[in-house]
Design goal:
about 170 residues; 5-stranded mixed β-sheet; alpha+beta; Beta-Lactamase
């Protein structure tokens, strides 16, 4: 596997934060997003656990065959990180990696409840900010993040090449 270019990914994550904003997000939209992630995973032949939240409410949760309780726990930890930092769990992890430190060392956050792995992407509404999140677990954490971005780009009406991370 190729090495992740931290700076290039962080630059593209900033583009995602700017462009992946919706005009509205409600339970119906959350359900559509979760289903679309499921369809993309099935088309790619990968097994994911998928969670879409609106505020504190879980609106969509699906554990595909081949996933288990550990995936649900990864979702919880990724979501905790994204919610606390108001940023994707992947971006948070890369920032700490760039600094040569960890969430636990710098923030005192227990690894049992937080993670630096990608897979949770904030749902932002223009003029409002973060209103929810979409989280997946089941493949390489950078790819987990990418799966959510693929579905969010469709929902936002953006060409994927505008927001996708560069291939490794």
């Amino acid at each position: 596997m190729s090495t992740i270019n931290i700076e290039a990914d962080l630059q593209q994550l900033a583009v995602q934060d700017k462009l992946l904003q919706l005009s509205a997000f409600d339970q119906t939209t959350a359900w559509k997003l979760g289903n679309r992630i499921k369809e993309l995973a099935e088309a790619d032949g990968v097994a994911l656990a998928i969670c879409v939240r609106l505020g504190k409410d879980t609106v969509f949760y699906y554990a595909m065959p081949g996933t288990g309780p550990l995936n649900a726990d990864w979702i919880r930890r990724k979501h905790n990180t994204a919610e606390l930092f108001q940023s994707s769990s992947y971006a948070v992890g890369l920032r700490f990696q760039r600094e040569g430190t960890t969430l636990e060392a710098k923030q005192g956050l227990p690894v049992r409840d937080y993670t630096q792995n990608g897979g949770c992407v904030p749902i932002r509404v223009k003029g409002v900010g973060m209103v929810g999140s979409a989280t997946v677990s089941g493949i390489f954490h950078r790819d987990d993040h990418g799966m959510v971005v693929r579905a969010l780009a469709e929902l936002a009406g953006l060409p994927l090449e505008q927001v996708a991370l560069a291939p490794l």
